[in-house]
Amino acid sequence: MGVLAIALMVSYDVLLRFFLNEPQLFVDDLTSFLLVPVIFLGAGPTFYKGGHIRVDLVTSHLKPKNQSRLRVFTLFIGIALLGLITYETMISTLVAFQTGRVSAVMNYPLWMAMLFVPLGLILMVFFMVVSLVKEARAKGEKNPESHQDVSAEISH
């Protein structure tokens, strides 16, 4: 829905700019603001469904048991790093709110768009924790084939 709104606003701006020489200043700010939730709120579910690009040049040659161990390790590292990044972006959002920072063109409060960054990161951490739990459960079952693709479980 956000991408459709961005496309419509940009089209509106282009048409008015081209035919009437009347650029719409609000479009730049609003499309930038809308892009933040589109990206950050979509990253977690995309991760969970296996939709991100994976480079498995090395990992595909590992035994399933080692693949599982590496996945658990990288999920732990990812959760820890995203936890730190979430904390820092929340602080930055809070500072923007307290200081009243606004966008350069239309003076929209920046904290409203900035808030979607830590919210999206929290969502990403949530899905990483869910993946970690599933990986640990599959490992506990001692069936390496049961945890190869988390996305297969989602579609059921």
Descriptive account of the structure:
There is one protein chain. The chain has 156 residues and is mainly α. It has one domain. It has six helices and no strands. α1 (2-20) packs antiparallel against α2 and α2 (25-48) packs parallel to α5 (116-140). The longest helix is centred in the middle third of the chain and has 36 residues, at 64-99. The two termini are 25 Å apart.
Radius of gyration: 21 Å
Q: H/E series, N to C?
A: HHHHHH
The percentage of residues in β strands lies in: under 5%
Residues in helices, as a percent range: over 70%
Biggest beta sheet attributes: none
By helix and strand content, what is the structural category? mainly alpha
- Number of contiguous helices: 6
Number of strands: 0
Nearest-integer average pLDDT = 88
Distance between the termini: 25 Å
Low-confidence blocks of residues: 144-156
Shape: elongated
Tally of individual domains: 1
Give me the secondary-structure topology.
Elements: H1 2-20, H2 25-48, H3 64-99, H4 110-114, H5 116-140, H6 150-154
Helix pairs in contact: 1-2, 2-5, 3-5
Core attributes:
single chain, 156 residues, mainly alpha, elongated, disordered C terminus
Brief characterization of the structure:
The protein is 73% helix and 0% strand. By secondary structure, the chain is mainly alpha-helical. It has one domain (2-154).
